[in-house]
UniProtKB/TrEMBL annotation:
<keyword id="KW-0031">Aminopeptidase</keyword>
<protein>
    <recommendedName>
        <fullName>Xaa-Pro aminopeptidase</fullName>
        <ecNumber>3.4.11.9</ecNumber>
    </recommendedName>
</protein>
<keyword id="KW-0645">Protease</keyword>
<dbReference type="InterPro" id="IPR001131">
    <property type="entry name" value="Peptidase_M24B_aminopep-P_CS"/>
</dbReference>
<keyword id="KW-0482">Metalloprotease</keyword>
<dbReference type="GO" id="GO:0006508">
    <property type="term" value="P:proteolysis"/>
</dbReference>
<dbReference type="InterPro" id="IPR052433">
    <property type="entry name" value="X-Pro_dipept-like"/>
</dbReference>
<dbReference type="InterPro" id="IPR036005">
    <property type="entry name" value="Creatinase/aminopeptidase-like"/>
</dbReference>
<dbReference type="InterPro" id="IPR000994">
    <property type="entry name" value="Pept_M24"/>
</dbReference>
<dbReference type="GO" id="GO:0030145">
    <property type="term" value="F:manganese ion binding"/>
</dbReference>
<feature type="domain" description="Aminopeptidase P N-terminal">
    <location>
        <begin position="4"/>
        <end position="139"/>
    </location>
</feature>
<keyword id="KW-0479">Metal-binding</keyword>
<dbReference type="InterPro" id="IPR029149">
    <property type="entry name" value="Creatin/AminoP/Spt16_N"/>
</dbReference>
<comment type="similarity">
    <text>Belongs to the peptidase M24B family.</text>
</comment>
<keyword id="KW-0464">Manganese</keyword>
<dbReference type="Pfam" id="PF05195">
    <property type="entry name" value="AMP_N"/>
</dbReference>
<dbReference type="GO" id="GO:0070006">
    <property type="term" value="F:metalloaminopeptidase activity"/>
</dbReference>
Length: 445
């Protein structure tokens, strides 16, 4: 199920070339991700580089994009050639000739010819700058990077190595209509899988049974993979932010925190729900749950064009702290608690992150003013971010025991629009009484 046209990828390359031309021109080089080995002769499932995909739509390994921004703009794709023997083992590939036509590149070559072609490009053009992602270029072993280094050593033409990362990141921060459509489909799949989990869960199951159930539903509905390692945390495990062991038996009275999302056509989804294993929140669980839910609602209300990225976090923080004060979990002055960050024992993370091709997507959280003062990035139509407040109350002599080991996070994905925001993961309920009703009325064997 394709959701983004080849023409759209081509337009992104043209936009990037235009941006580099405005900076004086250059040669843009973006290798695809490497394959990694899990153990001897056994690879991890391959996942392409997000920037590479964003500019090409191409997902095969051992590939590279080269774009020339100059007097004559050009695009090059390097990829695996056709090889019957290799394809018998690992599957059919496009081959450079077909890939070049299908993905609308000006030129396409076998990847083994990269050294020769990049040398010709550098030597035959009056361009002295190379643009590459510096965080991947420095310290990584890669044949493409080795070839670039060799060209720099053997020719005097390259005078500047420039970082491409921020330029592409800012392009990716604002999603186009096809990206938004894809992310809404991914969100719908993930929401339905979370809803199924409320009906499926039973006391005595293991966390990994819920993990396997949600992964099954992702794939059943057409998603290609999970977008991050699923968190299924019951009981005290819910107080561990990135708990992924998922190996404990679910007990009566436990809360279960499930943070899981699918990846569809390379775009991530991200949802967290917390629910009682026995279908009924205890009074203490419900008190903390409603604090977090109110914090999420208030934060979502702050997701408006023109507000800053930090506004939802500050809105959620005030609700969470007041709730902790009301329940006598925190004691003191609210402003002093915020200033000294005393809340971090219970809420150590931010309320939001960008989401897109990566679940923690690229794009700066700050923008610099003319006087070089950092300001929070302003929210604009086409941005997508998560809203995920939480409270994590571990066992402590300073805290009433009926609150011990309660960990709650509620997370949705938000699309910023011109005059409003849209919760694209809203198809799975968040209100406690709705969760309880679903768990009471529907039991899947």
């Amino acid at each position: 199920m394709k959701t983004i046209s080849v023409t759209q990828f081509q337009k992104r390359r043209e936009t990037l070339i235009k941006k580099i031309n405005e900076l004086g021109g250059g040669i843009i080089i973006i290798p695809n991700a490497k394959k990694f080995y899990r153990n001897n002769d056994n690879e991890f499932q391959y996942r392409h580089d997000s920037n590479f995909y964003y500019l090409s739509g191409f997902t095969e390994p051992n590939s590279c994009i080269v774009l020339v921004a100059g007097k004559q703009n050009k695009s090059f794709l390097f990829c695996l050639p056709k090889n019957k023997n290799n394809e018998m083992w690992t599957g059919e590939v496009y081959g450079n000739e077909v890939a070049g036509r299908v993905f609308k590149f000006d030129y396409a070559y076998p990847i083994e010819k990269f050294d020769i072609v990049i040398s010709d490009i550098i030597n035959n053009l009056s361009i002295n700058s190379i643009y590459i992602e510096m965080n991947k270029y420095i310290g990584q072993k890669n044949k493409i990077f080795d070839s670039i280094n060799e060209q720099i050593k053997t020719t005097n033409k390259i005078k500047h190595i420039c970082d491409l990362s921020d330029i592409v990141s800012e392009m990716r921060l604002i999603k186009d209509n096809s990206e938004i459509k894809t992310m809404k489909l991914a969100a719908q799949i993930s929401a339905e899988a979370h809803l199924d989990l409320l009906k499926y869960c039973k006391i005595g199951m293991y966390e990994y049974e819920l993990e396997s159930r949600i992964s099954y539903n992702f794939r059943k509905q057409g998603a290609q993979s999970i977008s991050y390692n699923s968190i299924v945390a019951s009981g005290k495990n819910s107080c561990t932010l990135h708990y992924i062991k998922n190996n404990q038996k679910i007990k009566n009275g436990d809360l279960i925190l499930v943070d899981a999302g699918c990846e569809l056509n390379s775009y991530a989804s991200d949802i967290t729900r917390t629910f009682p294993a026995n279908g009924k929140f205890s009074p203490s669980q419900l008190a903390i749950y409603n604090i977090v839910l109110e914090a999420q609602k208030t934060a979502i209300d702050s997701c408006k064009t023109g507000n800053s990225f930090n506004d939802p976090h500050q809105a959620a923080l005030k609700i969470l702290i007041q709730g902790l004060l009301d329940e006598k979990i925190l004691v003191g002055d609210k402003d002093e608690i915020i200033e000294n960050q005393k809340y971090k024992e219970f809420y150590p993370h931010s309320t939001s992150h960008w989401i897109g091709l990566d679940v923690h997507d690229v794009g700066s959280y700050y923008s610099s003013s003319e006087d070089n003062i950092k300001n929070w990035t302003k929210l604009k139509p086409g941005m997508l971010l998560t809203i995920e407040p939480g409270l994590y109350i571990r066992q402590s002599n300073n805290i009433p025991s009926h609150f011990w080991n309660i960990g709650i996070r509620i997370e949705d994905t938000i699309l910023i629009k011109t005059n409003e925001c849209e919760i694209i993961t809203k198809n799975v309920p968040v209100k406690a009484h709705e969760i309880e009703k679903i768990m009471k009325d529907s039991i899947i064997i």
